[in-house]
């Protein structure tokens, strides 16, 4: 099978100007991946599926990865010349910057027709808060349907063009996305607002003599 | 309104009207499950019915959800091994192998030959166990209550006895390790496994004589829930369900992981993709598994079961990621791991075959009756521990 670099070059020759980047995997498995830009992901996916040399007709695995904001500390040596003519004074200057986080969706593609794979695709959202839309690849591979719903549910990536984007594993009224790294569990999953507190307060206003508002005020 | 339900002032229609027109009613929405005996656990289908015909079916998941992946990210690599038993709790040995293989590929760990043989033996025993159960449950779902299931469970119990004597547990085996297996199989165990493999064919003959040619089973399953090959590929259906649709794709052959390239076995394929084919594929796969078992039990070499360089304590794979998959009894079970160099995986993902095989449940059931939906679901072969994770 072609290497990831060759596939990238072929995508670029088919779609000039498309944003496709090679992401190296340093581990022993050496499964390198291709980072696609969100605006042409759908067309590139269709190309990968239909190209006679690749025919990646089987999208095996779809999953999300959360990469929160990272603080990067850079140290640089600054030398200040000594006005008296002695040796220059070297100090370390530290700069801190925040590398903005993002959500990533990873697709593992195989070819059932030509029996090769995997080709790994990655899509990244602009940030983790308000710009979390990515194009859905469900119209290209039906197997993304439930898996993208799962990524939406657990990571909070919103797939545009998905036919039925709802929560799948958590219940419908659930807030938040549990697979995010900064997810904090609620103290009590079972808690829900009930009228009892309000009713009791109202009863107390009506019958101040009764105190706690028992059965026989 | 007249007695027949027609407004009195309406235009005169044809003299003979069909009963269906007279009694045409509303669509009925029924919630099947989560506590329904045919859903194999806590699974719910919201079914819209026109009479008895299904016009819409939406599966509802999550009743067993415990966020297995989050637990995996918050524990060490080895700490997830017992949790993988609980995914597809009928097939803990193959879950263990899939996970061990992923971590071995992530860290570049080798496995000794005897351990590879043991893995194949245990995986094929698991396949026998799972497919036997499925044949029993499918018959149970189609109305043959009790007897075929008990026949299947009798054989399953023999395999579970083998698992128990080797790993200490019938179902939650927790047997594989990164770089080998946890305990060696003594000669009497191998002898018992050999006897089981030799006798299993006779059980299949008996079972097939009772079931395979059965008129009622054929009437209930043939032509029911047809799955076209192109749709199956697009929907990522894997395992026996895919091969029943006629697609020649078996990860044991395609990836050749472990020592499978050394073994000669065939991949049975279906011709119609219906429920009956899905049943038959399992029976034929079991016959191939018996061959693999006999070959493995004949050739298993002596030697260590654990790579001496394998690191058990302070295990920290280098930075990197891997997606690794094996052919589980229900389909392609894969693990996707990202290591940031720490003791826990940064990302731990399970590719659950039965969850993804359910993608097409609605497509398979449309136009069939409720009773057929039960049989179709039974032939997909799901375990909710894996679907919901």
Keyword list:
A: alpha/beta; Beta Polymerase, domain 2; two-stranded antiparallel sheet; 20% helix; disordered C terminus; B: 389 residues; Cytochrome-c3 Hydrogenase, chain B; three-stranded antiparallel beta sheet; 16 helices; 12% strand
Number of strands of chain B: 8
| Helix count, DSSP H or I runs of 4 or more residues of chain B | 16
Indicate the CATH topology of chain B: Cytochrome-c3 Hydrogenase, chain B
Work out the oligomeric state of the chains in this entry. heterodimer
Order of helices and strands of chain B: HEEEHHHHHEEHHHHHHEEEHHHH
What is the typical, i.e. mean, pLDDT of chain A? 85
Gap from first CA to last CA of chain B? 55 Å
Helical/strand content category of chain A: alpha/beta
* Second rung of CATH, namely the architecture of the largest domain in chain A: 2-Layer Sandwich
Overall number of structural domains of chain A: 2
Largest sheet of chain B: 3 strands, antiparallel
Summed up:
Chain A is α/β, with parallel strands linked by helices. Chain A has helices spanning 4-14, 41-50, 144-155, 196-206; strands at residues 20-23, 33-36, 58-67, 70-80, 89-99, 102-111, 116-124, 133-135, 158-160. Chain A folds into two domains: 4-67 and 103-185, NADH:ubiquinone oxidoreductase Nqo5 subunit (Beta Polymerase, domain 2, 2-Layer Sandwich), CATH 3.30.460.80; 188-217, no CATH class.
């Amino acid at each position: 099978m072609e290497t990831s670099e060759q596939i990238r070059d072929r995508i670029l020759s088919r779609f000039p100007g498309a944003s496709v980047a090679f992401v190296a995997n340093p581990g022993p498995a050496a499964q390198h991946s291709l980072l696609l830009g969100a605006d042409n992901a759908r067309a590139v996916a269709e190309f990968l599926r239909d190209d006679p040399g690749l025919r990646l007709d089987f999208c095996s695995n779809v999953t999300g990865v959360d990469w929160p904001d990272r603080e990067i500390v850079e140290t640089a040596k600054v030398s200040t010349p000594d006005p008296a003519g002695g040796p220059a004074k070297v100090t370390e200057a530290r700069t801190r910057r925040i590398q903005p986080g993002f959500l990533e969706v990873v697709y593992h593609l195989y070819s059932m027709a030509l029996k090769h794979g995997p080709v790994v695709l990655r899509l990244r959202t602009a940030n983790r808060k308000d710009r979390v839309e990515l194009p859905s690849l469900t119209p290209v591979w039906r197997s993304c349907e439930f898996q993208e719903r799962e990524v939406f549910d657990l990571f909070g990536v919103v797939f545009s063009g998905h036919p039925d984007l709802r929560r799948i594993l958590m219940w419908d009224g659930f807030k938040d996305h549990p697979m995010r790294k900064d997810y904090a569990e609620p103290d009590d999953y079972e808690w829900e607002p009930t009228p009892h507190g309000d009713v009791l307060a109202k009863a107390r206003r009506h019958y101040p003599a009764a105190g706690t508002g028992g059965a026989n005020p | 309104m007249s007695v027949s339900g027609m407004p009195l002032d309406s235009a005169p229609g044809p003299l003979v009207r069909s009963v269906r027109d007279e009694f045409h009613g509303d669509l009925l929405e029924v919630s099947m499950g989560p506590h329904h005996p045919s859903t194999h656990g806590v699974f719910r289908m919201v079914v819209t019915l026109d009479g008895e015909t299904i016009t819409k079916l939406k599966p509802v998941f999550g009743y067993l959800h415990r966020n297995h992946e989050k637990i995996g990210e918050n524990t060490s690599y080895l700490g997830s091994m017992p949790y993988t038993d609980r995914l597809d709790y009928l097939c803990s040995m193959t879950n263990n192998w899939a996970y061990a293989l992923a971590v071995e590929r992530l860290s570049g760990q080798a496995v000794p030959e005897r351990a590879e043989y043991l893995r194949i033996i245990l995986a094929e025993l698991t396949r026998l166990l799972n497919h036997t159960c499925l044949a029993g449950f499918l018959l149970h779902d189609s109305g043959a209550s009790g007897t075929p299931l008990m026949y299947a469970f009798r054989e399953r119990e023999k395999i579970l006895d083998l698992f128990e004597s080797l790993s200490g547990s019938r179902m939650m085996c927790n047997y594989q390790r990164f770089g080998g297996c946890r305990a060696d199989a003594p000669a009497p165990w191998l002898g018992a496994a050999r006897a089981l493999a030799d006798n299993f064919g006779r059980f299949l003959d008996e079972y097939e004589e009772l079931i395979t040619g059965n008129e009622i089973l054929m009437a209930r399953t043939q032509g029911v829930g047809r799955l076209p090959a192109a749709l199956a590929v697009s929907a990522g259906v894997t395992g026996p369900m895919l091969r029943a649709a006629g697609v020649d794709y078996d990860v044991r052959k395609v990836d050749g992981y472990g020592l499978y390239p050394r073994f000669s076995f065939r991949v049975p394929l279906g011709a119609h993709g219906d429920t009956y084919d899905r049943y038959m594929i399992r029976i034929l796969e079991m016959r191939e598994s018996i061959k693999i078992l006999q070959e493995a039990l004949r050739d298993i070499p002596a030697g260590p079961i654990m790579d001496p360089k394998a690191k058990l304590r302070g295990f920290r794979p280098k930075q990197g990621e891997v997606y690794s998959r094996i052919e589980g009894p229900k389909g392609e079970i894969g693990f996707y791991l990202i290591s940031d160099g720490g003791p826990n995986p940064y990302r731990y993902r399970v590719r659950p075959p039965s969850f993804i095989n359910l993608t097409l449940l609605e497509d398979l059931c449309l136009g069939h009756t409720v009773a057929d939906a039960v049989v179709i679901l039974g032939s997909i072969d799901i375990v909710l521990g894996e679907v919901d994770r």
